[in-house]
């Protein structure tokens, strides 16, 4: 049985395909159409999934759509009466989804009647819960989804057992932890879609000096709910004004914080205004208040469900700083966060929800993130032959052992290495297949990377990958974090060993690398450890102000545009002959990704 999951008409459009209960492929449309956070119908992603499954669209049995325009209809109608623009927006969404069969058929240039699949609507947060629990290693677990908004709710929690998830509670619009975080991110002067990561990094520089006020902005509502102080926000009156229907554009979100918030906390920071201690303390207060609410919800859910394992999903599950505190603050002993915890992951969740609804058994665990496009050695050779001038770099083709040794030597020597291997990662993190790697022992490496390649704000941390056998030696916790979704404190005596990816508060958002899930990457880290004594690398995504590279052509283009020293693609190792003059690439944009 072939089930296609599609997250469409929404940021992070994506597709996933499940065949006989096994995930075969999953990819975000942005990796393929090169538009960050691409919305619209993910036609390229659907095509890729079909190719991987060896199936035609006409052979798909079920299509799962993680959106139910009819969910929470009463609440929606109440808002529609107050806000005509909201009613119009809902009507447009319902029309759009009603025509999805025709739109898919048009994209594939077939008659709609050729799509014989049955369409299923899965409510947004049910799909989030499914995206975490049904691919987790647990047979029973508590499950929690928190995001900005989806199907008019922002939060759902429940208990999963075998092929079934029972919802225990939900929070509907306008109360939303995601909107809370986005509104305060805007207030701190960061307006781009996805900037919440930046404020999470900023929080480490401050103290929660404004916590009393933030406890009025968001507060817990036991046992596992919360409320916003709505006077601090505008979305309950204006709607969450999100312009993300156009696939060709990155989403834009309208202002979410109110004038009242500025009267209480002072004027909002302008985007070009220098950051100061007040901003750091505001960010720290916001993060601390969020953590207080999450800890209360986690504990309430632990008590109600009686479970010791927890699965997290929704955009809030990317708050790795909060996630890192689950183990000390709750009875949960095991936590699973799927690599695409945000809305891209809905495609996987909806597909598995349908699989189990139709009587399918559990039998799949997502223990790695490599579900995207893969390129063979001959694909890579063809790209190099076709587009690469021999004067630019020395190229060698090496067997695996030599490739690992040479790459490890370059990293230990302080070179910046582009590492392109195997299938592209699912989710927003580069996890060792589309990564830029560097020596974590060098304190200056963060600035070097920013100057030469990433051009990010100086306050943002980089992250380490470390072999799982060494996690406890370097970190105060050793729970697996294979998808970079947890931040743990680095042991004080080890902070000088990995200064480059250690944040100002002594934590790091680590990727734990296992030999079984990432064999080649694990070998590389071990070889780095043999040379340097530290079996870890600084790992940042392989891109330069663009979606993470997917194809060899994009990796090569990024290598050429930036000041990377070495590019390793498959078995080919390219070493730049001479460093380009710094000025030629010295963009100083302070808000690039
Ligand atoms: Fe969501």
Structure, explained:
By secondary structure, the chain is of the alpha/beta class. The chain is built from 22 helices and 23 strands. It has a 9-stranded mixed β-sheet with strand order 15-23-22-16-17-21-18-20-19, sandwiched between helices. A 5-stranded mixed β-sheet has the order 3-2-1-4-5. Strand 2 (14-19) and strand 3 form a beta hairpin. Helix 3 crosses helix 4 (84-98), helix 7 runs antiparallel to helix 12 (277-305) and helix 17 packs across helix 20. The two termini are 40 Å apart. The protein binds fe (ii) ion. The site of fe (ii) ion has 6 residues, from helix 6 and strand 6. Fe (ii) ion (FE2) binds at residues 124, 128, 147, 150, 314, 343.
What is shown here, in short?
Helix content is 35%, strand content 21%. By secondary structure, it is α/β, with parallel strands linked by helices.
């Amino acid at each position: 049985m072939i089930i296609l999951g599609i997250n469409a008409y929404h940021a992070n459009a994506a597709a996933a395909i499940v065949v006989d209960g096994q995930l075969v492929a999953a990819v975000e449309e942005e990796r393929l159409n090169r538009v960050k956070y691409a919305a619209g119908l993910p036609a390229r992603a659907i095509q890729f999934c079909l190719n991987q499954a060896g199936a035609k669209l006409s052979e798909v049995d079920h299509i799962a759509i993680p959106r139910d325009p009819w969910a929470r209809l009463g609440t929606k109608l109440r808002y529609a009466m107050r806000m005509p623009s909201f009613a119009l927006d809902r009507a447009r969404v319902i029309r759009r989804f009603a025509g999805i069969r025709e739109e898919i058929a048009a994209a594939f240039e077939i008659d709609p009647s050729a799509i014989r699949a049955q369409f299923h609507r899965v409510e947004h947060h049910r799909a989030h819960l499914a995206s975490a629990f049904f691919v987790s290693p647990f047979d029973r677990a508590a499950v929690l989804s928190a995001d900005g908004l989806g199907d008019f709710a922002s939060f759902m929690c429940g208990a999963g057992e075998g092929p079934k998830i029972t919802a225990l509670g939900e929070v509907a619009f306008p109360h939303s932890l995601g909107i809370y975080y986005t509104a305060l991110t805007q207030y701190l002067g960061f307006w781009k879609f996805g900037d919440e990561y930046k404020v999470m990094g900023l929080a480490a520089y401050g103290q929660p000096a404004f916590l009393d006020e933030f406890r009025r902005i968001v507060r817990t509502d036991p046992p596992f709910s919360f409320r916003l102080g709505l006077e601090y926000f505008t979305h309950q009156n204006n709607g969450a004004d999100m312009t993300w229907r156009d696939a060709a554009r990155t989403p834009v979100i309208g202002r979410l914080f109110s004038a009242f918030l500025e009267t209480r906390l002072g004027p909002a920071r302008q985007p070009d205004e220098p950051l100061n201690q007040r901003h750091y303390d505001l960010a720290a207060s916001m993060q601390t208040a969020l953590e207080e609410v999450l800890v209360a919800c986690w504990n309430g859910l632990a008590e109600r469900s009686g479970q010791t394992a927890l699965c997290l999903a929704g955009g809030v599950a990317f708050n790795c700083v909060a996630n890192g505190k689950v183990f000390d603050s709750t009875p949960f002993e095991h936590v699973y966060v799927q690599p695409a915890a945000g809305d891209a992951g809905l495609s996987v969740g909806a597909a598995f929800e349908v699989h189990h609804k139709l009587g399918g058994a559990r039998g799949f665990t997502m223990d790695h993130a490599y579900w995207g496009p893969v390129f063979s050695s001959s694909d890579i050779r063809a790209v190099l032959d076709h587009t690469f001038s021999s004067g630019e770099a020395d190229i060698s083709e090496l067997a695996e052992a030599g490739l690992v040794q040479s790459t490890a030597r370059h990293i230990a020597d302080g070179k910046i290495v582009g590492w392109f291997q195997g299938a592209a990662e699912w989710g927003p993190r580069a996890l060792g297949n589309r990564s830029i790697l560097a020596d974590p022992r060098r304190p200056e490496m963060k600035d070097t990377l920013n100057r030469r390649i990433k051009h990010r704000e100086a306050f943002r941390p980089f992250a380490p990958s470390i072999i799982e056998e060494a996690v406890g030696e370097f970190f105060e916790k050793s729970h697996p974090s294979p998808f970079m979704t947890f931040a743990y404190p680095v042991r004080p005596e080890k902070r000088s060993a990995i200064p480059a990816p250690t944040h100002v508060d002594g934590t790091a958002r680590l990727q734990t690398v296992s030999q079984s899930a990432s064999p080649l990457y694990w070998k590389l880290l071990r070889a780095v450890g043999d040379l340097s004594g530290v079996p870890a690398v600084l790992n940042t995504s392989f891109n330069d102000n663009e979606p993470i590279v997917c194809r060899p052509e994009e990796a090569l283009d990024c290598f050429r545009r930036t000041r990377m020293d070495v590019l390793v693609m498959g078995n080919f190792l390219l070493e730049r002959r001479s460093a380009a003059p710094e000025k030629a690439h010295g963009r100083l944009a302070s808000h690039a990704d």
